[in-house]
Amino acid sequence: MDEARTAPGPGEAGEGRIDALGKRTGMWFFLFTELLFFGGLFLLYSIYRYKFPADFHQAAADESLVLGSVNTAILLTSSLAMALAIAAVRRGEVRRSIGLQRTTIALGSVFLVIKGLEWGAKIARGLYPNGPALLSLKNGEIIFFGLYFTMTGLHALHVLIGIAVIAFMIRFTRRGVVGPDRYARLENTGLYWHFVDIVWIYLFPLFYLIT
Amino acid sequence: MPDQPGTRTEPPYWADEGRRRGLAAWMMSTDHKRIGVMYLAALLSFFSVGVLLGFLMRLNLLSPGAVIKAQTYNELFTMHGLIQIFLFIIPGVPVAFGNFFLPILIGARDMAFPRINRLSWWLYVAGALIVLLSLVIEGRPPDTGWTFYAPYSIRTPASISLAVFGVFVMGFSSILTGLNFVTTIHRLRAPGMGWFRMPAFCWTLYATGWVQMLATPILAITLALIILSRVFGIGFFDPARGGDPILFEHLFWTYSHPAVYIMVLPAMGIISEVVPVFSRKSLYGYAAVAISALGIASIGYLVWGHHMFTSGMSDTARVVFSFLTFLVAVPSGVKVFNWVATLYKGSVKLDAPLIFALSFIFLFSIGGLTGLIIGSLAPNLHVHGTYFIVAHFHYVMFGGAGFAILTALHYWFPKMFGRMYSERRAKLGWLFLFVGFQFLYFSMFILGYKGMPRRYFDYPPEFRTLNIVSTIGSWILVTGLVIIFANLIRSLRKGPRAPRDPWGGKTLEWRIPSPPAAENFRTAPVISDTPYDYGPE
Questions:
Q1: Interface contact flag, A19 B18, Cβ < 8 Å
Q2: Which phi-psi region, left, alpha or beta, contains residue B298 (left: φ > 0; alpha: ψ -120 to 50)?
Q3: What is the CB neighbour count within 10 angstroms for residue A31?
Q4: Is the C or the N end of chain A the one with fewer CB within 10 Å?
Q5: Does residue B508 contact residue B456 with C-beta atoms inside 8 Å?
């Protein structure tokens, strides 16, 4: 069976034991690559912001500060739920952990719904890439909204993936694949979710608070 | 204790053990050796397609326009570049030989994440197929050159989105491979194998893994932006909408220059393995060779601007990039001198692997030194965008990374497939390849210096003679490749059985049977000495 071959090499202790530190190391490396993935966009943002400061200032006035703030609070709370879910599993409180993971998914979904409403309002006004209203704006504003849709869109995609992964984790927790003595997967999922959260913490001021 | 020669009790790694048989047993396998062999087969298949396309390009330049139309020529050099770079040489050494040998060389049973390793392989296959699919559907084949420069890549009717998406998918494969290698080296070294007891090849794979993780995401986002620009009209690189096409070039080369080191670093690792074995001497300056790999990886990340000296950059930036380019030549030079010093007063045995390795040193030195000509600002203005550049990177990529792959093939073939090949045919093939290579590419140095621009399907009459020389060189070179691969393929079945250690190597892979069993080591090895133990000098 090839599935049994995930055990660490002969240099490691005991067969079949999970190398939790190794898995966490791999996850940190992965998050590092994710950071650079978003980094390309942050680089574009800073260059174009430098090039069109006035246009960015004006375009950012279109963003709803209320919705942005609410979403920030929601995502931060979801990260708290995720952290508590890991703590619960470590203490062996499987039911509570599942409840907290469900809370994380629920909050993530609310975030996406609010994000969708914001997008929808813009799209309805023709304010989307290649859209009639957008193309009538100044160059810097076109770039601002291009960055807005690209960066929040990419972020939303990551939230969506996170929700899907947590859904799998709930299954694993229920079946005992994730438990008090083997929670590396859940911990890595948590790391990913916090990363997605942190990206938003940077997106929020860049798009909502710069007016 | 290591297995004794001729006392094989376990079946080879390719014997099916699980419930799956045949192709499924291979595709679903998480065995690093099987994955490595599958990668090798795929790489060499794509390599032959790429060679064929390059061959056709040379054929056109023999008599421009006679057989191939201008547009077809644009598509030919684009696909030649895409295939040779993204499908063959960037994955190249790490995925084939790194996968097969890294765990063995550090005394592990498999990678840190065997299933992620299998996922990398699937992503690579999927990405490669998508790239090839762009040849046949959605308009005409890509014609932008492998660099996808904006704004043309955003406006051309060719099927760019599909090709770019294929490269994007392969990028993920590359990231996961790098991540896996680095974690494996951190976590799975055998007891007693400290960092400075690792074979040099592992050091280069480690440095390469970092470059793959640090650089590839930037390519991924850049390619994603091309797709978004084409599909949704996001104008990041479109001057009409406030965008800046030069930014695309920056982002692209921020990945694609480090990618050069993804190709050549592990290639240097292979040479560092082969030279000591065939000189019967320890690798001279082992620590310097190991550290210089990290040096190349870190400085190499900061030199991308030298691809853009004529694109529009401040003089300060150009001077800094030029200086850093010179700096990155230092660790490369350290390696070359260490290989030569290893050979010095060694008991040199000119077997096929060493002949290929020596050719690497020779060709890579020419490629590297001409790189300094291009890296200095004034000559760069003269030769930028000419055949001088084409000659330079073929000396480094083909003469460097390509010859290293051939070195590795001849060095590790007995271990991977359990058979020996005909030494005589290998050397004959090498002779054709090496001679053809000089005719093919050295004439390009002269053509470029005289001012013949690259990427054109036609040229003024004064360049005719050298173009004929170059094309004849391509015929000799292809003959050499055919001989080399015919020899190896024939030996898969008909070659004599390989002993455990045909070359007298001292690293761990030579202590286990040829071919290795699925579990690599029957008992975990314990390391107590340097990797190249050839006794006192």
A1: no
A2: alpha
A3: 17
A4: N
A5: no
Judge whether A4 lies within some domain: no
In a domain, A16, yes or no: no
pLDDT at res. A17 = 57
Q: Looking at the domain assignment, is residue B520 inside a domain?
A: no
Q: SS3 of B2, please?
A: coil
Considering its fold, how many domains does chain B have in total? 1
Q: What is the interface size between A and B, counted as CB pairs within 8 Å?
A: 146
Largest CA distance in chain A: 66
Scan for tokens 């979710």, then name that residue: A193
- pLDDT, position A10: 41
Q: Range of B81's domain?
A: 30-511
Distances (CA, A) of B269 to B63, B198, B378, B408: 41, 12, 33, 10
CB atoms B243 and A143 under 8 Å: yes
CA A18 distance to own-chain centroid? 26
Res B307 pLDDT > 90: yes
Residue B458, SS3? coil
Give chain A's domain count.
1
Q: Per-residue DSSP letters for B278-326?
A: HHTSPPTTHHHHHHHHHHHHHHHTT-GGGG-TTT---HHHHHHHHHHHH
Q: B168-226, pLDDT tens digit by residue? A: 999 999 999 999 999 999 999 999 999 999 999 999 999 999 999 999 999 999 999 99
With a CB cutoff of 8 Å and minimum separation 6, the contacts of A129 are A145, A146, A149, B228, B232, B233, B234, B235
CATH code (residue B270):
1.20.210.10
State ipTM.
0.90
For A73, the domain range is: 30-208
Interface of A with B in 162-201 (CB under 8 A): none
Query: What pLDDT score does B142 carry?
Result: 93
